[in-house]
Amino acid sequence: MEPTIPGLTLLAPLLDAATLRHRVIAHNVANVNTPGYRRQTVEFEADLAKALATADPHAIRLVKPRVVIADGPERVDGNTVDIDQEMNSLSKNALIYQAAAQIIASRIAALRAAVAGR
Domain of 50? Predict the structure, then answer.
């Protein structure tokens, strides 16, 4: 059954992934000077693309964002966090979240206007 808000099946998991990614990036930034800390990332988009490529309309609901340890250049102290990369990732993630939230808000506004008869 399709939700009453068109595209919510796709946008809700995208918001969930962006929220988790924000937490993971913040965790990476907090540990930028922790010796031996391994940078973490969130994998979601590739799994979502695979689900969209299938003929099963319910496959999207099974896709969940997951936290993984990322490979990368290691500093002398064993830490793999690059603060510049984290800040870029944070900006990109914020834009994705804001865009998805704005799309949902505009669709809700359209539904409200339709219900109100405008």
Answer: 8-116
